[in-house]
Specification:
about 375 residues; mainly alpha; 14 helices
């Protein structure tokens, strides 16, 4: 047991906040800021353990499957939080903002921090150009599918055939069509990267790292932490709703969704991506960060749209104009910087500067 505990990430100690958070929720005390903080810390600690477990599994499965597993289980937490929040119509804006925040967080914050952290040690770090070009192409398709519902929501008055009564139906129909297309593209991307063109995306063989856990131990930790994250997500959403709509703390809903919820939900894969970049495993770092970004755009966002319609509380993909501008800017920067299959610390700094600027914009947004 002591040997196992010594292998746990130090940040995972925050998972102890799970117990007071669940106790406070069951006793209906401390609603609002305190419970929100405790549940957020508990989720951070839990997703750190998820990240460690998926990293161990990746040592058995290889970098491609490892990157996919890390991104998937990292996004499971956010998906659970978002589905829980969908139950409340008043939190739909926060859910949409969390989608924006996850894409921006993985593409600009996580990948940018990885490029800086690894670039300070290694002047140039490389990853496959084929993977970079394919991922950027899918990212642009996702932006188009997000842009059209946003366009319908903003400028319906430009089309004489649209009125205030029927433009909402078009917005939701376009969002459903986008969800189906994006899910189909996500499935095709899995076939491309894991089957037909796996040989193009495999990194060159390097030093083999030995796992610290057995595969059984990693699987048990992974599944149990996912269950805990699901339980804690309900507490987190309830506390967030109370804090925003009952206490009225004065923080922009957009900032909460884009920055706070996204950072909490993506902490696990983000920390892994940054850490492995320092070990000159930029291919794995890129697979985790970009894979998570694309999973949010191609899988999580469409699933949320379909689930919202299934439960009778439909949510469209119409984003706030500031969110759409931020996504388009991030995609353009990624297109310019990543297509050569190389990275350095200055390119990472450009990513981080863009993220900090838009975080400030969302903070000042009313």
């Amino acid at each position: 047991m002591l040997k196992f505990l010594s292998t746990l990430p130090k940040v995972s100690i925050l998972g102890l906040a799970v117990f007071p958070a669940l106790i406070m929720q069951s006793m209906k005390v401390g609603q609002g800021g305190v419970l929100f903080l405790l549940s957020a810390l508990g989720i951070l600690g839990t997703v750190t353990l998820i990240g460690k477990a998926t990293e161990e599994v990746s040592l058995y499965s290889g970098p491609l499957w490892g990157g996919l597993l890390n991104a998937t289980f990292g996004n499971v937490t956010e998906l659970i939080i978002a589905i829980t929040a969908l139950q409340k119509i008043e939190l739909h804006d926060v859910v949409r903002s969390s989608i924006t925040g996850s894409i921006l967080g993985n593409l600009l914050l996580v990948l940018g921090a990885a490029m800086v952290y690894g670039g300070l040690k290694y002047p140039v770090q490389k990853f496959t150009r084929t993977g970079a070009n394919v991922n950027i192409g899918m990212l642009w398709v996702a932006m188009i599918c997000l842009l059209v519902p946003t366009f319908v929501h903003l400028v319906y008055s430009w089309d004489p055939k649209l009125t205030e009564l029927n433009f909402g139906a078009l917005e939701h129909q376009v969002s459903l069509a986008a969800a189906v297309v994006l899910l189909g593209l996500y499935l095709l991307s899995l076939i491309f990267s894991l089957r037909t063109h796996r040989f193009l995306l495999m990194p060159q063989e390097g030093e083999h790292e030995e796992p610290e856990w057995s595969l059984k131990t990693a699987a048990i930790v992974l599944l149990s932490c996912t269950v805990v994250a699901a339980l804690l997500s309900d507490v987190f959403v309830e506390a967030m709703n109370h804090m925003l709509h009952v206490q009225g703390i004065g923080i922009s809903e957009m900032f909460v969704g884009v920055v706070i919820v996204a950072v909490v939900g993506n902490a696990s894969e983000g920390s892994v991506a940054i850490w492995v970049a320092r070990e000159n495993k930029m291919e794995l770092s890129y697979q985790i960060a970009m894979g998570s970004c694309l999973q949010i755009a191609l899988m999580v966002a469409p699933v949320l749209v379909l689930v919202s319609h299934a439960i009778g509380k439909p949510m469209s993909l119409a984003l706030n104009p500031f969110e759409m501008v931020a996504l388009l800017a991030a995609t353009q920067i990624a297109t310019t910087s990543l297509q050569d299959g190389e990275s350095n610390w200055l390119e990472g700094a450009l990513f981080l500067a863009t993220y900090v600027f838009f975080a400030c914009v969302f903070w000042f947004h009313p």
